[in-house]
């Protein structure tokens, strides 16, 4: 079992999917409570408050907003900087002038959707910061299990615990988002067995051993499909059902290399601000369960990343520049 801080499994309190939580040790990086930075030019002064009447913005659907919601939304899109740092204007001005920032209209739509969904302005602003802000984590993929092209414009990194119910529930949505964009998304798995889950560590070792024989993804599905049956006999049976060479399976799952790989992923997760599993980074930005829900926000987020990556690539091609790589800001 990986040696780290005590962990507890959270419960599902609202319609938002809450993950299984990790309490970091005092030596671990502390990210809890740190709000994501807002988009905008470095060191720029706050934009002035607006008292103007709400207007329509091209490409932004605000038809369902009542008067109160429209006023709140209009203040946000006029008082927050556009999501592209080179555009030192408000979101509203960016959209109105059709500036070269493809993320401006989606950013305005996000704020409209959050306000219409009942979010207070500070929460809508926090969602905007998380989704479009400059807080982009760089995570080494290394030899972690991955699917999709290495040069895919969208990289989704997921830290999972095989005994975590929230991880099991998230997997179909992650799989669907991956399958919807063939060749455009790279899916990467990282291990994060929680100490409170007694079978999570052995299951992670079994998945590592399966990876060594080219069957990681099959083993992952087997483990999540049989989440209540993860004892040693079960793990051996799954390996046999997958046709793994059993002597090698036993050697690999008990090896020091398995422990090193798991601990490496745990440390990377802590550094990336992991607060619970599953912890999902989409092009380096954390998918926060306090601000977004797996269904439908995860798929919509990845859909937009693919679209924005395509538009950035087209713009770079027409200008002769190199398109921005995964993890870069829109």
From TrEMBL:
Statement: the UniProt record of this protein carries the keyword Signal: yes
Species annotation: Chondromyces apiculatus DSM 436
Any one Gene Ontology molecular-function term assigned to this protein's record: oxidoreductase activity
Signal as UniProt keyword: yes
InterPro entries reported in the protein's UniProt record: Thioredoxin-like_fold, Thioredoxin-like_sf, Thioredoxin_domain
Domain Thioredoxin residue range list: 115-271
Entry-linked PROSITE patterns: PROKAR_LIPOPROTEIN, THIOREDOXIN_2
Low complexity: bias regions: 35-49
Superkingdom as given in the UniProt entry: Bacteria
Designated name of the protein: Periplasmic thiol:disulfide interchange protein DsbA
The family this protein is said to belong to: Belongs to the thioredoxin family. DsbA subfamily.
Family annotation (SUPFAM superfamilies): Thioredoxin-like
Lineage: Bacteria, Pseudomonadati, Myxococcota, Polyangia, Polyangiales
Region Disordered: start-end pairs: 24-61
């Amino acid at each position: 079992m990986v040696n780290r801080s005590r962990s507890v499994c959270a419960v599902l309190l609202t319609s938002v999917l809450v993950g299984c939580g990790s309490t970091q040790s005092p030596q671990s990086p502390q990210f809890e409570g740190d709000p994501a930075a807002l988009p905008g030019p470095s060191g720029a002064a706050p934009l002035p408050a607006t008292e103007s009447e709400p207007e329509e913005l091209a490409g932004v659907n605000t038809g369902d907003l009542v008067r109160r919601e429209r006023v709140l939304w209009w203040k946000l899109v006029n008082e927050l900087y556009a999501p592209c740092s080179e555009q030192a204007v408000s979101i509203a001005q960016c959209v109105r002038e059709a500036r070269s920032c493809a993320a401006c209209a989606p950013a305005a739509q996000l704020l409209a959707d959050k306000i219409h969904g009942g979010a207070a302005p500070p929460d809508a602003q926090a969602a905007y910061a998380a989704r479009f802000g400059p807080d982009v984590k760089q995570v080494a993929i290394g030899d972690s299990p991955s699917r999709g092209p290495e040069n895919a414009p969208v990289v989704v990194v997921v830290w999972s615990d095989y005994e975590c119910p929230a991880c099991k529930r998230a997997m179909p949505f992650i799989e669907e988002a991956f399958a919807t964009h063939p060749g455009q998304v790279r899916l990467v798995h990282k291990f994060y067995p929680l100490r409170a889950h007694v079978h999570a560590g052995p299951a992670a070792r079994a998945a590592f051993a399966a990876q060594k024989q080219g069957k990681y993804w099959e083993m992952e599905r087997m483990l999540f499909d049989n989440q209540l049956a993860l004892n040693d006999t079960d793990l051996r049976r799954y390996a046999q059902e997958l046709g793994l060479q059993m002597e090698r399976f036993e050697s690999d799952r008990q090896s020091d290399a398995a422990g090193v790989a798991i601990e490496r992923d745990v440390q990377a997760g802590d550094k990336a601000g992991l607060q619970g599993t599953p912890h999902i980074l989409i092009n380096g930005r954390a998918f926060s369960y306090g601000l977004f829900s797996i269904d439908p926000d995860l798929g919509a987020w990845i859909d937009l990343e693919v679209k924005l990556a395509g538009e950035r690539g087209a713009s770079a091609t027409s200008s002769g520049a190199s398109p921005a790589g995964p993890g870069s800001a829109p």
